[in-house]
Design goal:
By secondary structure, this protein is of the alpha/beta class. The protein has three domains: about 270 residues, Alpha-Beta Complex (Spore Coat Polysaccharide Biosynthesis Protein SpsA, Chain A); about 150 residues, no CATH class; about 30 residues. Helix content is about 50%, strand content about 10%. The chain has a seven-stranded mixed β-sheet, sandwiched between helices. Helix 2 packs parallel to helix 3 and helix 8 runs parallel beside helix 9. It is elongated, with a radius of gyration of 29 Å.
Amino acid sequence: MTFTKPFSEIEAPYSEIGAPTDDTVERSIPADTTSIEAVRQVESSDLDQDHLLHGVEVTVVFPCLDEELAVGLCVANALETMRVAGINGSVLVVDNGSTDNSVNVATAAGAQVIYQREPGYGAALRSGFEAAQSEFVIMADADGTYELDAIPRLLLPLLKGDADMVLGQRLNDATTATMPWLHRYVGTPTITYLVKKATKNKMTIRDSQSGFRAFRRQQILDLKLSSTGMEFASEMLIRSSWANLRIHEVDTKYAERIGESKLSTFSDGLRHLRQILILSPETAARTPGLMATFAAFVLWTLAALSTQGFGRVGSISWSADVAAGVLSILGPLVFCTGVVLRYRAESLGLRSTHVKVPLATLIRRFFACGAALIVLSLAGVVVLFLSFHDQPEFVSTAVAASLSSFIRSAFVVGIVLAAAPLIAPFLITSPHVELPSVSEEIPASTRAISDYREKSLTPADICLVCLRQSALREA
């Protein structure tokens, strides 16, 4: 499905877009009964749902970056869906630096538009949550992919008290045309698995990357989310789970995108992994580090007990020593990275756990462990030296090979940990949490950049233009 007409040329009035008809409303009546009582139960359920939805104040927030072809349709569909359901709804579009006609299209369709100059999906959504005034908020993309007719279905679990956040699960309806194979079978399942592990499997969701979500505004604001990019989706779920919010899913349809995608598969995927690592280092650092270190000692033991090859190059014991040497370096360093990231997350308030170890104590412990490993390595060198020059050798060839592998690894890890005081200053820097204030008027700097964008000026030139305009205004 591809739209090539600009918004102004679409002939269908907004009131006709997305409005459900009697023919599209399905009744869930058991197949084995046609009794009047079953029909009454269905009608009673519908009346109860209509009663819950009637008058509820909801704001639908759309982040927008060059979505001229789709944003008007999304705004109109959301408004019409809420009107038909009796919801007291409004639509808020957060423009994130669009250079096309998105703002005018969204305004014409009935949305309020605000501007956030900090780039990023998370930055736009966070600004929208702050600006919304309703109790409930629904977030969705302004690209035509999400089933906005499902807005009532996302709200009902919240209104019934069954959930605190509801996600529109897309995977059952996704196709190769609507979701790339790599995203559907690799990216989304992997990130979902890591998100669930980061919350100790408190969630049972399948689609952690769905951007179609309903929640109570104040509960999400209380989380003080800090991400500005696509990783915002993962941070939102992890920290909601830490706050013991109940997260449910409802099945929704998923359509082909209108317009050009802004998603970068690998860079955005790495941002998600980095966010998960910062919020839950034990998931991707501490536990894997311990496992790698344990595996190294197991391999060293097996190599030392080997009766074939005796540590000679190419033998099984030699291969085990090599593998153990690699794992014994990666394991402790990854584990220590997890410790540092956990400290950083706690000290910056990204985790609710209070910091139990001051930074100075943490650095001293790293230094002490590094110094101990260096001393232990030197002792091992002495043992091997004496064994080589003593006859008969009191250390077998296989044991000596494993011990030499351990010594090399201990030296490397020890030196890195002993250098901890040198990296300490990097642990106290803070991420950018506060966003620039939003505005309902296009900032002067944005107008200057838009005016001169076509002239291919450098960023320095654009800054000069902005400074000149500022000077003229002051004059």
